[in-house]
Task: structure prediction
Amino acid sequence: MVDVPPKRPRRALRSVGEGELRLRHRVVHGYRRAYRMAGEGPALVLIHGIGDSSDTWGELIPDLARTHTVIAPDLLGHGESDKPRADYSVAAYANGVRDLLGTLDIESATLVGHSLGGGVAMQFAYQFPERTERLILVSAGGVGGEVNPVLRAVSLPGAHLMLSTLRLPGMRLQVGLFLRLMKLLDTDLGQDAPELLTLVDALPDATSRSAFIRTLRAVVDWRGQAVTMLDRCYLTEGMPTMLLWGDRDSVVPVRHAHGAHRAMPGSRLEIFEGAGHFPFHSDPARFLALVEEFTSTTSPADWSREHWRELLRAGRPGTAVGQPDTAQNRAIERDLREAGERSAT
Result:
């Protein structure tokens, strides 16, 4: 019999003023970092994907901020944050999120990560489990090797020149027409046409393009995703985790959701039918309802050094002597073999 935590009383809603949604800035380690912060209550950190910014959560923040303190940063190299020649690995991003939260007096939080941000959220939970209350991974990177071929191409030499062509006169119109055609043909890529066009606008100059390429090359090469979180997913045991995915995701295939679900003990999986890589844009009402229900009916992870040590000593399922030969463990091992040449950060 599974113990279900008692449902907490629904928190009183509060209105969110326009001033709370404005972009703010903090200087951390000498770099200016942009972020949005609104609301009161348990902390909820929203981490965007590659080439995106905190603006991607803009329409959701007012509702989430009625019951939470919402913090949505622009990751370094993105949005209105500085774009130095720096370390753009998922581990560095996890450190950056921790340090920003430290300046805001946020000791622990539920992390919501989309795409690259999902990998950052998972890395944050691995590096700082004592500061992670829950994980909500949305179309997250770092599970399987597959990724959209366009991203593999941009990781190759010459990417700067290729991306610079997007600023040529008339190019944005051509890209827009192509994406509109993909949508009219009802392709998976077409499901995210507006967001992909926004990505073109997010790379207006050489500095932005350089930061984008450095970030991409930290996680993707010509063969696909180069970083995996599968080898450490078992450490989420006891940490409430929910996976949200669109079944028509052309960037990170939905099969990755099932692989992550198998590898993360006790995780919950929700599939958005007909949605692409941005399910929180496709069906914001369902996304909001799931986040609110998940955070209000689960208790924050109760991390302890002893439990962490026990998990590390036991290792991931199927690797220790005496582990049961179950279909789930075989599936996890298959995924791990496929990820064998990918780096574990």
